[in-house]
Amino acid sequence: MAQLLFQSVSRYRSSLYETARNLLRSRNNQFAKVQRLQKQLGEARVEAERLKNEWQRTNDDLHEARRQLKQQQDRADQLQERTNRLPSDLPLKHHCFGPKMIALCLNLSNKIGFRPTEQALKMTFEFLGIPDKPPTWSTIRKWSCRAGVALLKEPVEAADDWIWFVDHSCQIGQDKAMQILGVRAGELPSPGETLPLEKMRPLAVSIKTRWTWDDVRKEYAQLAKRIGTPRYIVTDGAKELWETVDVLQKPDKEVIVLRDFKHYAANVFKRSIGKSDRFLAFRKQWGQTRSAIQQTELGYFTPPAQKEKARFMNLGPTLRWASMILYHLDRPGSKTRKTISESRMNEKLGWVRTYRDDIQCWSRCQSIIQTSLRLINRVGLSAGTSLRLKEELTQLKVRHSWDCSTSDAMCEELVSFALAEESKLKDDERTWISTENLESGFGQFKRLEGQHSKGGLTSLSAAMGTVLCHWTPQRVRELLPTVSTKQVDQWVKQELGSTLAAKRKLAYQEAANSSG
Questions:
Q1: Which residues are CB-neighbours of 8 under 8 A, at least 6 positions away?
Q2: In the predicted structure, residue 502 carries a pLDDT above the cut 70
Q3: Are 430 and 185 in contact (CB under 8 A)?
Q4: How much is the mean pLDDT over the chain?
Q5: Three-state secondary structure string covering 41-62
Q6: pLDDT, tens digit (0-9, with 9 covering 90-100), for 287-301
Q7: d(CA 435, CA 179)
Q8: CA pair distance 216, 37, nearest whole angstrom
Q9: CB of 146 closer than 8 Å to CB of 480
Q10: Cα angle vertex 436, ends 435, 439, to 5°?
């Protein structure tokens, strides 16, 4: 054995010492490697434990998220199955609907009409999944009539500073509605603010086929007996409305009669311009042009429709149209004229050039009226109003640098009118000389009537005062139960008798029966 070992060792060239040293070094390296691997193994085990814990937490979070998702899904299913309901709204006595729904219907119908209100509510209920049925348009109409009569019968506080605004409204036929709105002078808005329609109180609505001066005096006397004598009455230029105020005059209390500024300004415009040959010729060609081009490629240049009533209070759109036409006639390259030949433009609209100077003058007069109205509708009437008006018109003249005797004369006449009206007041008094709110109320009422406004006054006249109010559930709860449908019918019978629509229906029925 020793011999064999010696023979094996003798094969290597290295000495036994070197061989032993190398083997020892190899063993040490292997030992270090084992230690390093053991360290890495320990770190791997720690990382594996960390990952295992993290996976466990993630798995727990996943289960919690699934649980919450299931809860949300169950809740969503419950909400979907649950039926939507209207807010709590106990019906009024002898009604199927509560004051909240009635107030909503009254406000909505004043904006869009009765039938559109029913349709809008139907679509809303369907969208929200509400199984209830909304009120029908005829029901809403009855509510409006009852609310209108209730407003007229509502007690009015006694005061010595009431302002009455009086005017007539007529449609086709002979019937005229006389409406009186009121506001207390102490409740007027501060100077610089306009008078909102909601501040006006409907005091009286009366309808007659023919109004005599005695009829007007009777209405004034009846209203004064019910609510007291007013301090001011504001009317347009109708003599039967302001000369009949003598029935209210008392030795110890004077009623001041004021004329509406806008109507007066329109009359000034009419006297200064409206009867001139130039203006009449302009109106004639304006009407002919409207008929000639509204169905042609020039349709977007069609002039606005002429108003048969109060035309001098509504000339603004016509004069703006004329100024616009002059602009495009002077600029053949404008984008609007790109598809229209010059010969075609001159053939149909070239006539406007012949009125260039007149249009400038008329437009200045219109600016004077609008500037005056803006001031009057902001400050009312009091001592110093005429001076402020004069200053405003002077500044307007300076800005536009006009030299026009017609415009100057109009300024002087409007300032003189304001001075004459304010001289009727005491130094500490302030009132209003604009019936625009009354006119606006008539306009809103005609929109409420819709197509019926072209058929004369109807039973809906009972609802004339409702357009002035913003209805709240409390207001509905207080007023609506005070007037029944029967009382509305009595009011209509007393004021209207047989309406124009009823007479027309009867005429068709008689003709149909005779032909059958």
A1: none
A2: no
A3: yes
A4: 86
A5: HHHHHHHHHHHHHHHHHHHHHH
A6: 899 888 888 888 888
A7: 12
A8: 117
A9: yes
A10: 90
Percent of the chain with pLDDT strictly greater than 90:
38
Which SS3 state, helix, strand or coil, does residue 32 take?
A: helix
Decide if 217 contacts 239 (C-beta within 8 A). no
In this prediction, residue 82 carries a pLDDT of 57
Pairing of strands 176-184, 201-208: antiparallel
Cα distance between residue 316 and residue 328, in whole Å: 19
What's the mean pLDDT in 226-238?
89
Which H helix or E strand runs over 18?
helix 16-81
**CA–CA gap between residue 504 and residue 500 (Å, rounded):** 6
CA separation, residue 242 to residues 17, 190, 249 (Å): 144, 27, 12
Q: What's the confidence (pLDDT) of residue 2?
A: 54
Q: What kind and span of H or E run contains 8?
A: helix 2-9
Give the model's confidence band at 493: pLDDT under 50 very low, under 70 low, under 90 confident, else very high.
confident
Tokens of 22: 């190398």
Distance (Å, whole) CA 139 – CA 472: 18
Q: Enter the tokens of residue 227.
A: 């609510």
Q: Do 232 and 220 meet the contact criterion of CB atoms below 8 Å apart?
A: no
Percentage of the residues of the chain whose pLDDT score is greater than 70: 90
Mean pLDDT of 246-273: 90
Furthest CA-CA distance within the chain: 164
Separation of alpha carbons 143 and 320, rounded Å: 42
User: Which pLDDT score, from 0 to 100, does residue 338 have?
Assistant: 84
Burial of 194 (0-12, 13-18, 19+ CB in 10 A): middle
Tell me if 404 sits within 8 A of 364, measured CB to CB. yes
Residue holding tokens 């001592």?
A: 383
Instruction: Classify the phi-psi angles of 113: left when phi > 0, otherwise alpha if psi is within -120 to 50, otherwise beta.
Output: left
Kindly tell me if the per-residue pLDDT of 30 is higher than 90: no
State how far the Cα of 431 lies from the Cα of 88, in Å rounded to an integer.
44
Using an 8 Å Cβ cutoff, are 431 and 381 in contact? yes
* Global confidence as pTM: 0.76
DSSP H helices, 350-424, are 356-379, 385-400, 405-422
Residue 234 DSSP class: E
**Amino acid at position 98, single letter:** G
CA dihedral 458, 464, 470, 473 (to 10 degrees): -60
Residue 400's φ and ψ, nearest 5 degrees, are -100, -5
Task: Give the DSSP letter of residue 308.
Answer: S
How many helices (H) does the chain have, and how many strands (E)?
18, 7
Confidence of residue 171 (pLDDT cuts 50, 70, 90): low
CA distance linking residue 141 with residue 114, whole number of Å:
7
pLDDT band of residue 98 (cuts 50, 70, 90) is very high
Residue whose C-alpha is closest to residue 195's, from 378, 353, 416: 378
